[in-house]
Amino acid sequence: MKRVKKSVEKNIGLNMVLPLALILALILASCSPTQDSQITKDKVFRLGLTQYAPHPSLDNIREGFLQGLEEEGFLDGKNIILDISNADGKGENAALIAQNYVAKNYDLITAIATPSAMAAHSAVEGTDIPLLFSAVSDPIFAKLVESLEMPARGASGTADILPLEKQMQMIRAFLPEAKKIGILYTTNEVNSQSHLETFTKLAPNYGFEIIALGVNGPSDIPLAVDSLLTQVDCVNNFTDNNVVNNLDTLLEKANEKGIPVFGSEEEQVRKGCIASESIDYFELGRITAQMAAQILNGEKVDEMPVRLISESKPVANADVMAALQMELPAEYTKTIEYLTGN
Q1: Domains in the chain: ranges and CATH
Q2: For the chain, what is the HEC assignment?
Q3: pLDDT tens, per residue, the chain with 342 residues
């Protein structure tokens, strides 16, 4: 630029017409949308999608995300190349997947569930690779964003805000005499810690006491379940990935004792939980894909507010209700959706 400027200054006294024409042409060329739009149109973006565990609610997010990308005009093998990996519920796998995506310098990384999002956030730190997360209930608590309105830490996405008060109202309606709700949670899952804190604060308002037992991994669950079921009238399950992956163990032991287990979304109810105030996780994935399209079209992830998904619907498993000889509370007769097993 300095060389051009000197050339213009040198010739300005001899002939002003040519330099001015040249400058005008350069300005018009730089403002022309044709070249930029052609670059965007022809570019093939490389995307990495990392999912923390293979369970139905996270699978629904993934499928919703893939459908949402197609709806936004991004097709795998055409204008995007999509790399999908699953950490199988292991933190070390989530970290390796994220590091691999960063090493390949992908255009966008999307992480499903808090552990994968946190691993990806650590991996992209110091790079210009945008991170998009989904199913992170408390992204501030997980230190993924500075604020929901202005993330400012290289990441944004969708937060599944569990309707915990509606859930507690449902438990009270189903079990008017119950006093103690059991919670099984994984100590290193920040979503579960945040949910437990909120649920515990709500409990006195509805005459409940929370009995919580923390576990470190899958091997701890059988003994923890045995202990928990001796102390409670029912169990409420969050979206804890470790517990959801081992939900069969909890349900089998609870059914033997005739203790109802309430879930946090419809796939848990299909699996055998009695009822839930459920968020639509497929829709959560679609909304995440809409944000991905915005990023690929040039928007800055740091300036994209986190999308909060909190709308829920009550769902129940009629077979489980019959097995436990429980009736549907009158206030849910017009709104409940009955789900069948997988």
Answers
A1: 42-161+281-309 (3.40.50.2300), 164-278+313-338 (3.40.50.2300)
A2: CHHHHHHHHHHCCCCCHHHHHHHHHHHHHHHCHHHHHHHHHHCCEEEEEEECCCCHHHHHHHHHHHHHHHHCCCCECCCEEEEEEECCCCHHHHHHHHHHHHHCCCCEEEEECHHHHHHHHHHHCCCCCCEEEECCCCCCCCCCCCCCCCCCCCEEEEEECCCHHHHHHHHHHHCCCCCEEEEEEECCCHHHHHHHHHHHHHHHHHCCEEEEEEECCHHHHHHHHHHHHCCCCEEECCCCHHHHHCHHHHHHHHHHHCCCEECCCHHHHHHCCCEEEECCHHHHHHHHHHHHHHHHCCCCHHHCCCEEECCCEEEECHHHHHHCCCCCCHHHCCCCEECCCC
A3: 333 333 333 333 333 333 444 444 444 444 444 444 333 557 899 999 999 999 889 999 999 999 999 999 999 999 999 999 999 999 999 999 999 999 999 999 999 999 999 999 999 999 999 999 999 989 999 999 999 999 999 999 999 989 999 999 999 999 999 999 999 999 999 889 999 999 999 999 999 999 999 999 999 999 999 999 999 999 999 999 999 999 999 999 999 999 999 999 999 999 999 999 999 999 999 999 999 999 999 999 999 999 998 889 999 999 999 999 999 999 999 999 998 765
